[in-house]
Design brief:
hydrolase, about 15% strand, methyl indole-3-acetate esterase activity, MES/HNL, 6-stranded parallel beta sheet, 3-stranded antiparallel beta sheet, alpha/beta, AB_hydrolase_fold, about 40% helix, 9 strands, methyl salicylate esterase activity, globular
Amino acid sequence: MGTRFSCMPSNNKKSIRNSSRRMTKPLRTSSNRYSSDTKASRLEEELLWLYQQHMRLERSSSMRQPAQASKQRVSRSASARARQSSDPIVQPLQLLKKEGTALNAYTKHIVLVHGGGFGAWCWYKLVASLEEEGFIVHALDLTGSGIDSTDPNDISTIELYVEPLTAYMESVSEADKVMLVGHDFGGVCISFVMEKFPQKIAKSVFVSATMVTNGQSASDIFSAENSQVFIYKHGKNQSPTSIELKRDALKELLFNQSPAKDIALASLSIRPMPFAPVVEKLSLTPENYGTVPRYYIETTEDRALTMAVQQRMIKVNPPNKVYRLKGSDHSPFLSKPQALLKLLLEISQIKPTV
């Protein structure tokens, strides 16, 4: 067909254009007006016009996108061309896929509680992923952490330290139970809140976190490190007011498996942690704290809260279930965000026992 079209005389172009304008109107099919030969001729003219339009578009496309550019497979919007029969048809259920995980979850509201010295910033990867899955996610800065302007040296109790979390929990209705996720010293913080608001918490998750028992403090679990620096706001003849890690020890202890960019972010964002809450002992009762299901996520490459310490806590205070994140350092939200996301999605879909 191509050979035949290419050999047609050039003086037929005008008639072709005229016929193309006539072809925009419906063809009359009455045998009284048109013979079969006329129909065949008109059909041939229409096909010729369509072919020429196709070739014109091909030449235009080649000029806009040279061969070298086409090899790079430059992506373009689907709106740039008409839909073809080979294009996949997206079903409505596929469009709702991201919301499906949350829709199938028993817990759709997740509260993320950072560890000592960290802030809400540390959850940035997880917040984005959970929201894409359709969850309601709230990551907050505890007092003196993240962008909160309070001086960590002025925080004298754990109640003051977790005040942003308790204030948020007070705004939550009992019908909208949350899943608390605590990291590091955030484990102590969510334990404090579990005792205070058990009826508003569907389940709690300890991510490489301090999981204390009644009458225990975080300092009973953490051992003193040479990399720790104590700050004495009121003089060294008084108790320390805050504590922090030496900057050159951050990567080794907290981020030994994390990407370099995230380590840089953490190094600029991490702050001293108030000392008083670390040594304060918690009062936890079976009637409140004990009614909230607990889940623990171990981190195998953790050098801040080693596997031995994590497993000792688990043995003394057994949770409902233990998960393990292989290859994760103390900060799995940076080093293993997708693996952590997968575990949290699984936990969110666990059916409540009551």
